[in-house]
Amino acid sequence: SIYIANFDTLVIKSKDYISPEVRDEIKKFSKVVMGVEIFEESSRSMVLQNVLDSESFPISNAVRRMSLNVETMLEDTISGISNNDHDLLDSVVHRDDDVDRYQWYIYREVRVRSSEAEKNIYYLILSRILERIADHSANICILWKSVKSPKDLPLEDLKSNLLKSMEMYRAAVEAFYANNFSVLNGLIDMKDDIISRKEKIIGESRGKIGISAISSISEESSRIGLYATDVAELAMDNI
């Protein structure tokens, strides 16, 4: 809450020594938000400083960077499950924290600068959607890693489903930035197709080994596609 309120300096004090557990939480906080550094540290206090000049990193740039990070996460998720590359899947999961950092930064900047530009509120809503898509991408990676025998899963069907959702995401984000009205209705109308693809994969896998993972991964992929239609609707509202 204090970060969103845009503090310059935050001093955390204790009458007793700050425990290692609390110290670790404070350090974790400084890593999960953008532009905050631990400036001073003693046995009974820690000073956090907001060092990022938001004038040099406007909201529009943060959202674009965030959307590119999400796109890379989706690409690497597809590559990771295609090659059963656990290191790459782990990388996607860890990058979810970077997306969260952008989201909190955008939340703070929109709050501080809400009156400066009408489009800021659309950036805020877009950042929330991007954060959710990143979560679903990370969830797919976690689910895939938990499968004992990936070769029993319908890889091509699962990959194709996720790829189509990613293509929708790309098209929706591009339309948002370009104010391209012509493609938006087509994207929004794909909701039924998204659900049908998911149900087809699950239906064809009933009774097979790994049905639980297949169902969960299909659901996560479909959510990404549905969020892409939300981006398209947001773009239409913005236009």
Short synopsis of the structure:
Helix content is 69%, strand content 7%.
Helices, strands, pairings?
Blueprint: E1 9-13, H1 20-32, E2 36-41, E3 45-50, H2 59-82, H3 86-112, H4 119-146, H5 155-178, H6 184-188, H7 191-205, H8 211-238
Antiparallel strand pairs: 1-3, 2-3
Helix pairs in contact: 2-3, 2-4, 2-5, 3-4, 4-8, 5-7, 5-8, 7-8
Q: What brief labels describe this structure?
A:
flat; single chain; 69% helix; mainly alpha; three-stranded antiparallel β-sheet; 239 residues
Can you walk me through this structure?
The protein is mainly alpha-helical and 239 residues long. 69% of the residues lie in helices and 7% in strands. The chain contains eight helices and three strands; from the N terminus they run E-H-E-E-H-H-H-H-H-H-H. It has helices spanning 20-32, 59-82, 86-112, 119-146, 155-178, 184-188, 191-205, 211-238, and strands spanning 9-13, 36-41, 45-50. The protein has a three-stranded antiparallel sheet, covered by helices on one side. Strand 2 (36-41) and strand 3 form a beta hairpin. Helix 2 packs parallel to helix 4, helix 5 (155-178) runs parallel beside helix 8 and helix 7 runs antiparallel to helix 8 (211-238). The longest helix is centred in the middle third of the chain and has 28 residues, at 119-146. The protein is flat and about 60 Å long.
